[in-house]
Amino acid sequence: xxxxxxxxxxxxxxxxxxxxxxxxxxxxxxxxxxxxxxxxxxxxxxxxxxxxxxxxxxxxxxxxxxxxxxxxxxxxxxxxxxxxxxxxxxxxxxxxxxxxxxxxxxxxxxxxxxxxxxxxxxxxxxxxxxxxxxxxxxxxxxxxxxxxxxxxxxxxxxxxxxxxxxxxxxxxxxxxxxxxxxxxxxxxxxxxxxxxxxxxxxxxxxxxxxxxxxxxxxxxxxxxxxxxxxxxxxxxxxxxxxxxxxxxxxxxxxxxxxxxxxxxxxxxxxxxxxxxxxxxxxxxxxxxxxxxxxxxxxxxxxxxxxxxxxxxxxxxxxxxxxxxxxxxxxxxxxxxxxxxxxxxxxxxxxxxxxxxxxxxxxxxxxxxxxxxxxxxxxxxxxxxxxxxxxxxxxxxxxxxxxxxxxxxxxxxxxxxxxxxxxxxxxxxxxxxxxxxxxxxxxxxxxxxxxxxxxxxxxxxxxxxxxxxxxxxxx
Length: 474
Ligand SMILES: *Cc1c(COP(=O)(O)O)cnc(C)c1O
Fold this sequence. Notes:
Blueprint: E1 3-5, H1 15-19, E2 30-32, H2 40-46, H3 51-59, H4 68-78, E3 99-103, E4 106-110, H5 120-138, E5 142-147, H6 151-160, E6 166-173, H7 179-186, E7 193-199, H8 202-214, H9 216-221, E8 224-225, H10 232-249, E9 257-262, H11 267-277, E10 282-289, H12 294-301, E11 303-304, H13 326-333, H14 338-349, E12 354-355, E13 370-374, H15 377-391, H16 397-408, E14 416-420, H17 428-435, E15 456-459, H18 462-472
Parallel strand pairs: 4-14, 5-6, 5-8, 6-7, 7-15, 9-10, 9-14, 10-13
Antiparallel strand pairs: 1-2, 3-4, 11-12
Helix pairs in contact: 3-10, 4-5, 5-6, 5-10, 10-11, 15-16, 15-17
Bound molecules: pyridoxal-5'-phosphate.
Pyridoxal-5'-phosphate binds near residues 118, 151, 229, 265 and 266.
């Protein structure tokens, strides 16, 4: 299986060659040359599989340059109840992604039982094991540099802690994350994890990461890498739980289901698109945004118009102005026409927008099952309250966005599965506002904020960050 760039000008590569990289050399994103498609017989055989077996069955079709025994071993040590252990009452940790039924035909898929209580652990934990494996083979080293405003940084740190050959340098703004999110990252004492707390805002953190990454000499010399949301392995690993959820919510493969997905960078819902391409009987993929509604606008109008500003909302992990994985979907929508994608993103990258109505491409969106909606702060508070009152289930603000928009598109006879992307314990302020009570936390994390913290506070200064990396990169 070769991977090719959505912009068509970069060399075709194998899975292991794109694993550690970011963008393709032509600025595009890597995608499989063709999506493998499961036959009816194969799908029937998958119905009885546990999470690990499903993960191997799906991922071995996308990863063919890691020996199958090794891939199986990496999967078998990732997707275990001990890693995804922060279950809620009534959930079986052995399911890895338990399906909660609110009422017949309406479900929530628990994706946030991992170490950081957000769905990013689903892919990131596997990424940590894949990175370690590949670096071990090549005797390589990797210094992961990133900026976070919340869930990505902690998921990366918990996935990479203690891994041979890997160090993490994670920049976070001094203000802007919840106390829980800060404590989750800064409490890690592992020698290979470095928290750089920047006196500034998230955008400054991100600018520093860009500046360091654009210094190609520095980047090469110090083996700088990233684990951002365009990473193909993350998207691929996320497609597995769509299969798991489908089999849990249906009785036979003649049925269709719809998924509602709280979306930011379009990674999660892109994984659903891939599962659908691979033959999973998905009716609708419902893209739910918050007030940052660049994706909702596209799926309603055919116009993609990244915004100059990002709004800060009460579902902060979906606060994006452009959706980095969206290009993978548009590549398929455009019939895999790389020249077309190049011209569209030339406009976007010079600050513009594009409109897919004129050439008829927008009319094809329905064939891909994509629909959308957005929600406001009042909507998510309302939804958290209603779900608690009606079903006795507490959901976080991101999941509330998904549920609100999902219900708007619900169709009789088609089970609706809403992706739970974080646990309410991470977003205490929103829960307090909606319900007037504190969310329950896993007992192990009760005193998280009181634990000693390992962090380095510094000014928003590229040179200071580079110097820190030089001093600690070994
Ligand atoms: C990252 C994140 C999202 C958005 O997911 P994308 O893959 O970027 O679309 C939604 N909710 C939570 C809690 C997240 O951490």
